[in-house]
Amino acid sequence: MAELILGSVVSSITEQATSLISREIGGALGAKDELKKLWDTVQAIKAVLAEAERRQVQDKAIRDWLKKVSGAVYEADDLLDDYSTEIKRRRLMEGNPNNRMMKELRTFFSSFNRVLYNFKMADRVKSIRETLNTINQNKEKYNLGEDNTGNAPHNQIRDYMEKKKERDDDPYFCQSHLFGRDDDSKKICTRLFNDSTSDENVSVIPIIGIGGLGKTALAKQIYNDEKVDKHFSLKFWVCVSHNFDEKIILKKILQQYVQQCDGIKKVEEDCRADELRKKIEGKKYLLVLDDVWNENRGIWLNLENYLKNGARGSKILVTARSESVVKIMTRDIPYRLEGLSMENSLALLMKMAHKKEDEWKNQILEEIGREIVSKCGKVPLAIMTIGRLLCYKYTEKDWEIFNSQEFAGIKQETDDILPTLKLSYDILPSSNALLIVAYFPRTMSLAQLS
């Protein structure tokens, strides 16, 4: 997915080249001409980037072409950064005539040195430009033409992303389209209700599986089950994510305790974790730790120390992607969540595509749908994503074209749903913004810029 950031870097190069062309340094010894040629070449590559990024998922040759573009583009970006820095350095020297050090530097950067520097830079720009030009010419081998698709207004997907403000640490926000997980829910609840499965009062029940299977949604369904409410005296839900901070986790648990038992909306800052140990003592509780990534046993033991006082039968339900995460927490066999059945996968796809049963059942659309969900690996998140795309494909012909062209070559790996999800990424108008936001930790709050 690293190639996706290329568009932003290419834009940076064209902006820097434009700026340098207009400045004094760009005019010496052919540097200006080379910068203009570089600008033209980069623009030509930029024109086909969007198309190449879409097609690279199913075409290894284009993927290799993008890697070559990536190397040359980053080298060009670094070079223009150096060029811009040199301009700033010269302006700094010229702006401090009374500074002795600046005078010495001006002596060093004599007219001859400036000419020599410009000559070398022009030569370096030419070298990179020729490399990029060769790469640009090779695009014809892959039938890469200018991308004229624009930013298709797939409003449903965009709205879905924009309106998904409910956070994972809200256990009462549940997806209404949780398909095919009743059997999983019953099996996990059986383990939750068994108070004699462990020698300890508090035992850990892990749910593991790749991203997109619906571990969090399943845990929420269980958390909100009436039988669970009756079985446990207390319930706590904490979305942990990458930052496994025992103090934060304990504070969130304590916050939920006082809301449930004392009716207080906010925990005082000076409340100590020891208070939680006292409050849960002798009470049968259910704690859900969602999306755990920590593999440090010492950190886990520090947290566990505060949770041991619960009554016999207390449970800690953990959702995680890696078996390494749960091995440090318990010796019990984790519950491994798999993909949906074919029938449930098909039903989910058609629901997301707004297709009524009489529109697809026992028809060609059903055959196409089966092929699509198979490519999605029967992973709910991938199926839902593709289903939303198919909302705008109204006929069997449209679905056939999508399956044979846009979705051709996509194969869902057992541990990776990114190729499938990338299709929805490609049509979003704010792709670069999503890439930038993706660098921030999952639960981090971002301040809005005015």
UniProtKB/TrEMBL annotation:
Under Gene3D superfamilies, the record lists:
1.20.5.4130, Helical domain of apoptotic protease-activating factors (1.10.8.430), P-loop containing nucleotide triphosphate hydrolases (3.40.50.300)
The record's annotation in SUPFAM superfamilies points to:
P-loop containing nucleoside triphosphate hydrolases
Say if the entry is tagged with keyword Nucleotide-binding.
yes
The record's annotation in Pfam families points to: NB-ARC, Rx_N
Supply the source organism for this entry.
Trapa incisa
In the UniProt record, does the keyword Lipoprotein occur?
no
**Which PROSITE patterns does UniProt cross-reference here?**
RPW8
Which keywords has UniProt assigned to this entry? ATP-binding, Nucleotide-binding, Plant defense, Repeat
**Sequence ranges assigned to domain RPW8 in this UniProt record:** 1-151
Give the signal peptide, or none: none
Q: Which family does it belong to?
A: Belongs to the disease resistance NB-LRR family.
Q: From the Swiss-Prot or TrEMBL record, give the protein name.
A: RPW8 domain-containing protein
Cite the GO molecular-function annotations of the record: ADP binding; ATP binding
Biological process, per Gene Ontology: defense response
